[in-house]
Amino acid sequence: MFLKKKETPQIDPQQRELYEHARKRIIQKKRLFQHFVIFIVGAVFFALLNLVFDYGKDITFFGVNWYVVAILCWAFLFIVHFCNVWLFTTFMGREWSDKQMERLIAKQKEEIALMQKDVDLMYPKDDLMKKKEGFIKGKTSEIVEELKEKESKNMITMIAAAGENDALGKDNDLVWHLPDDFKRFKDLTTGHHIIMGRKTFETFPKLLPNRIHIVISRNESYQAEGAIVVHSMKDALDIAKNDVQPFIIGGGEIYKIGLAYADAIELTRVHGDFEADAFFPAIDEETWKLEKEEFHDVDEKHKYSFTYLTYKKK
Q1: Strand partners, 90
Q2: Domain parsing of the chain, residue ranges
Q3: Which fold has domain 157-313?
Q4: Picking from 89-98, 211-220, 235-244, 285-294, which range would have the lowest pLDDT averaged per residue?
């Protein structure tokens, strides 16, 4: 059998405040009465010492017996306590403080109203509203134009893997096997246009899925099944103009041309020097800023360590 827990009654905050105020007043009055008793007893004690026991009859202050002076000082301290507990609390208590606060708030409201009148005279509300509406419209149009400009401008990105000596590959093939880098290439480029040279395109065993292939070739009669053939980087970027991030994927000559057009470079720097016949162009630090790097160490799937580097054009 379980006993029902007794619920504690909830006290309204206002009632609690009144209760606390009443409790403090009772304590103050109790102390006042205690001091009054101490004052009476002390005054009688001083008088008895002097008049009955002849203690200090010869001691005077400015011709007044010492015990009279002591009683007067005792009375002064009692009166101060009385005024603090009774008079000040009664006439300058909570109600007095509330009235003073109300008067102060009312006075501040009057001053604010006067200041508002002066502002209305100096700056009429209708004129201010017109200026505000014009400002908002102007800012809104600026923001819209900025967003349109951002939406219309795509982020042209070159993506490559190169050795410490900028080696890209030899005989139209890579000189390393990095599965994680292949996966990153797929994740970044899927859903976008990929721009490449003829030799790079011909190294693919088949078209890369979910990507639009654009092949640059000087041969005007060249055809590439499943790809769009153009004859300049400008034409390739014009076809990819609606893509938010078209990628330039190589080879060496295409990278050199694309460097002038690119806004970003996603470079996998393979840590090692390799024999190659195609190279990635040098990255000028005055033009490009390294914003992110991520190191990948050697493991059972990767013979070489490498670092993902993300550059943005300054």
Answers
A1: none
A2: 19-91, 157-313
A3: Dihydrofolate Reductase, subunit A (3.40.430)
A4: 89-98
